[in-house]
Amino acid sequence: MTENELSKIVLDLGIKVHKVLGPGLLESAYEECLYYEINKYGLFVEKQKALPLIYEEIKL
Fold first, then answer.
1. Measured distance between the N- and C-terminal CA atoms of the chain, rounded to whole angstroms
2. What distance in Å separates the CA atoms of residue 15 and residue 40, rounded to the nearest whole number?
3. Quick check: helix, strand or coil at residue 55?
4. Residue 11: partners with Cβ closer than 8 Å, 6 or more residues away
5. Position 60 confidence tier, pLDDT thresholds 50, 70, 90
């Protein structure tokens, strides 16, 4: 599968999720539903990974 084919699938699934849920929800709601749809389609996907973040010498 090419990058263009993959991106079309993900974009189409994202539009599907948005049509079902509508606007105005938190990003995390759309993320969970898109994660579900991508898995249901049979593609492997990982959710956001925690990264170390240091801001003004404070590890967040």
1. 38
2. 15
3. strand
4. none
5. confident
